[in-house]
Design goal:
This protein is mostly helical and 334 residues long. It has one domain. 70% of the residues lie in helices and 0% in strands.
Length: 334
């Protein structure tokens, strides 16, 4: 009973933090973009513009909710909910600290990959249900892009599983207590990070909503809070992608060689430190996502597909084979 209560508390806090992290990420994006472009950014609504995300939400709520007359109204309404739902259920198996997680299942990696593959449905349904050529093209692009980059992402995660010899996310984090996977598996880290950009539809892979070609892509016909849910889902997926990079490649909540220099701590202070370390690593990668958006120009679609199929997938498979062979030889001779 106590374990169930603790899991529910962790789930409530995690959902609250994830939902609010999207608002923080929006504000951070505007501020960082302004700094990169040598301008001020939001500075009118509240001190330092901190209330700007709240003003944006109020504006979206008050806007008229328009549904295309010839579109599929039921799917048009359901589509924005799917990306938000998939982002929320992803955190179920992510450990935020030692013993601090909602649940630990022995197929946690498969769960994460399965949930990540569901995100494409919301975008594709939105494009089809809008009955607009721009939205449909955006939805088709999203389907092809996400399917193309799920393959190298899955193989990169498989190379991480080799080190832990387990599909449990908690055990993968524990296997990085001394050596992080970014050191043991740098190519897998690069492949996973690039694929995460593509899965989150972030620049330079935001072809599904390219304003110059598709007006707004899959959400061209969306307004009010339906558009707001797509907007929320995008930033939630950025935060989730940053969490997964931290979990799989940066040791999760572990500090480097912590056993050699970190003193003994009480469980409470140890939990606070673990969560703080995890949040700091996640925040760094959220900043990295934003920085890349305002630094690197958008790819052409043929470049996007060529990179995924001709470069990243063969490299991911080669990386997996090399790591598997190295681990096999190491275990055999040592």
């Amino acid at each position: 009973m106590a374990e169930l209560t603790f899991s529910l508390i962790v789930m409530g806090i995690s959902l609250f933090m994830l939902l609010n992290s999207a608002a923080v990420a929006v504000y951070a994006e505007r501020r960082i973009a302004a700094f990169i472009q040598n301008r001020v950014g939001p500075n009118r609504v509240g001190p330092f513009g901190l209330l700007q995300p709240i003003a944006d939400v109020l504006k979206l709520i008050l806007k008229e909710d328009v549904t295309p007359t010839l579109g599929n109204k039921a799917l048009h309404t359901i589509a924005p909910m799917l990306p938000v739902f998939t982002a929320l259920i992803t955190i179920a198996v992510i450990p935020f600290g030692e013993g601090i997680y909602i649940t630990d299942i022995n197929v946690g990696v498969l769960y994460l990959l399965a949930v990540a593959s569901l995100g494409v449905y919301g975008v594709t349904l939105a494009g089809w249900a809008s009955n607009s050529k721009y939205s449909l093209l955006g939805g088709l692009r999203a389907a092809a892009q996400m399917l193309s980059y799920e393959l190298p992402m899955g193989v990169a995660v498989a190379s991480v599983v080799l080190f832990a010899a387990s599909l449990s996310v908690v055990e993968i984090v524990d296997s990085q207590e001394v050596w992080w996977n970014i050191i043991r598996n740098p190519l897998g880290f690069i492949i996973f990070t690039v694929a995460a950009f593509a899965e989150a539809n972030r620049t330079p892979f935001d072809l599904v909503e390219a304003e110059q070609e598709l007006v707004g892509g899959f959400h061209t016909e969306y307004s009010s809070m339906k558009f707001g849910m797509f907007f929320l889902a995008e930033y939630m997926h950025v935060v989730i992608a940053s969490m997964l990079i931290t979990t799989f490649f940066l040791g999760g909540y572990h500090l480097p060689f912590a056993g050699l220099w970190l003193p003994e701590m009480s469980p409470v202070w140890k939990g606070i430190l673990d969560v703080s370390v995890f949040v700091a690593k996640t925040g760094f990668f959220v900043f990295f996502f934003i920085w890349v958006r305002w630094t690197i120009p958008r790819f052409k679609y043929n470049q996007l597909m060529k990179l995924g199929w001709e470069k990243m997938l063969p490299l991911a498979i080669l990386n997996f084979v090399v790591i598997a062979g190295a681990i096999l030889l190491y275990n055999e001779f040592f």
